[in-house]
Amino acid sequence: MPFVFDSSKPIAIGCDHAGFEYKTALVKWLSDKGYKLKDFGTFSADSVDYPDFAHPTANSVETGESCFGILLCGSANGVAITANKHQHIRAGLCWENDVAVLVRKHNNANIICIPARFVALALAEQMIEIFMTTDFEGGRHATRVNKIACS
Predict the structure, then answer these.
(1) CATH number (domain holding residue 85)
(2) In a domain, 109, yes or no
C-alpha cells in the first residue's frame, strides 16, 4: 500500500528504553505542531524488549489506522528488523537527512527508524520533517518496491 501522509490519521510512534527520551520529546514536538499521535510506548526508561513496541506500531501503519510510523531504539536496527517482518511495512533506518530523503523517494518507506544513541534530537526532528514531506518517485523505484514482498 502506498504511503501518503494523511493528517486526518494519527502518526504511530514507538520505542524501547533507549529511545524513550527522544520519543517523549518528539511526541511533544509533533503535538505542538498540531499532529495527532498514537503512542505505543514504552513509557519509561526501564529496560524493555523492542519488539513489544515495534510490532504494535507497525500493525497500526499496516492496517491504515495510522498514516505512517516512527520507531526509535539505540541503533534503530532492532526496531527496523522487527517492523520489516510485517508484509506491508517498509521501515527505513535513517541517520542523516539524505538517507531520510532516499528511503521515501526510492523505497516508499512508511516507517522511519531513528537510532537515538547516534543522532542528535534536532537531526531526528529534521529527518521526520523530510520523511513527511518527501514523495515517492515511483517509476523504476515502484518496480523494485513491488518486488520486496515475499508473497
Answers:
(1) 3.40.1400.10
(2) yes
pLDDT at 1 over 70: no
106 a catalytic residue: yes
Element (H, E) at 91: strand 91-93
Which residues pair with residue 36 across a beta bridge?
none
User: In Å, what is the CA distance from 44 to each residue of 15, 39, 76, 109, 141?
Assistant: 10, 13, 18, 28, 39
**Most distant CA atoms of the chain, gap in Å:** 45
What is the span of the domain harbouring residue 125?
A: 11-145
Determine, yes or no, domain membership for 150: no
Q: What is the pLDDT of residue 143?
A: 81
pLDDT digits (tens, 9 = 90+) for 3-27: 566 788 999 999 999 999 999 999 9
The band of 150, judged by pLDDT with boundaries at 50, 70 and 90, is confident
Question: pLDDT tens digit string along 30-65?
Answer: 999 999 999 999 999 999 999 999 999 999 999 999
In the set 15, 17, 55, 73, the catalytic residue is 73
Sheet holding 91-93, edge to edge: 37-39, 11-15, 69-73, 111-115, 91-93
Catalytic status, residue 94:
no
